[in-house]
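Quick illustration, no need to memorize.
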Amino acid sequence: MNNVSIPNNSVMSKCLSLLPFDSFSSGYLDSGVKKLTTPNLLRICIATQIGKWESYTEIEEQIRARKDSIDLFGLTSISGSQISRRVNSLPSTIAQSLFLMAVRKLLEVTESSKGLPTFGKLHVVDASCLHLGPTFGKWAYVTHNRNQVKIHTRLVVASPEEVFPDKVIPSTGNVDEREVVMELVTDPDATYLFDRGYVDYSKIDEWIENKIQFALRINDNHKTTYLEKYPNEDPKIITDARVVLGSKPMKHALRLVEFKDDEGRLYRIATSRWDLKASEVAELYRCRWIIELFFKWLKQHLRLVRLQSTKPQGIWNQIFFAMTAYCLALYVKITEESRKTPWRVLELIKIYANQCWHDFRKAVHRNPERTSKGRRKNNLPRGPEIQDDCGVAVVKPVGEKRSKTAKYFKR
């Protein structure tokens, strides 16, 4: 699948060669375009995500500074305004297709993965929000002080180290999770994990009829009719029972497991996994936290929180480009059989972007030099922190209230 027009002499070019950008050449979209063709635009957008280039000005300078820009992007310079216009006009189906190509590569290399021990293959479904400004984000209005879009995501947990999105549905922030969930629940061979926002009795009945395995958290106020309670010896498990939900009861019964976490918070998990112990159902639901870590990873390490556009099409494209970059970083980790985390692999890709692939591979496979187990923690209470003005600061004891005269000095 390598693109022969891009030489594999640098880390960035090697990463970009993993996707067939030239297959997106379009006589219609590229009519009259001299430099910034659709394939070149896609390469620049993926490189922007990998390098986390923060602005169109930085993109301009990065392209201008690279000696291999003509080989990578088919140009040596381009204005940020041109890139912005092309990103905003690029059909989002193209960005989505590029993402799905990256997903297919990951599915190929994780085909033999069997998911997590005990639970098997997992699909975690959830949504995350991206906030828009108050002026140009009115088309994504949710409340009087909040304009936002959502990223509805299905995350594949192929193994403890192999986690990636295989389906992403962007939407405006006023789209409820239950409106798109059926498009994300399609694989009967996986167990689906949901948070409380996905409770819909008719959909749960349909999943049970289609033999979809799931674990879903429900609220305390969901009416529950107990049909049978099962004995349990685990002190953390409060209830293990066969129930039906709703004031108008569901068609099918399901299993309800109630437990408390270490902080005393109550969790009520409705599930179709009858083959697991109650304690294993509790542990299964804890795996849902994987998608929260994934969203945090995306927003910290890729170009996603700071949106490049205020137009819907430009935002949808940026979301798919970020997801594609994540898939490429994970693909490199898996194919190189590296024990480093995806974040560390992406970090090394950024550091060695202009260097040869051989140097990058040495860094990826380098063993840590430190052999100690690090600083050991103890359970002793921490003493009060010593405050010191160091001759340059104004220090006030912790807990002391603001001075009443502070309002006169407010700027």
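Residues 1-8 have pLDDT under 50 and may be disordered.
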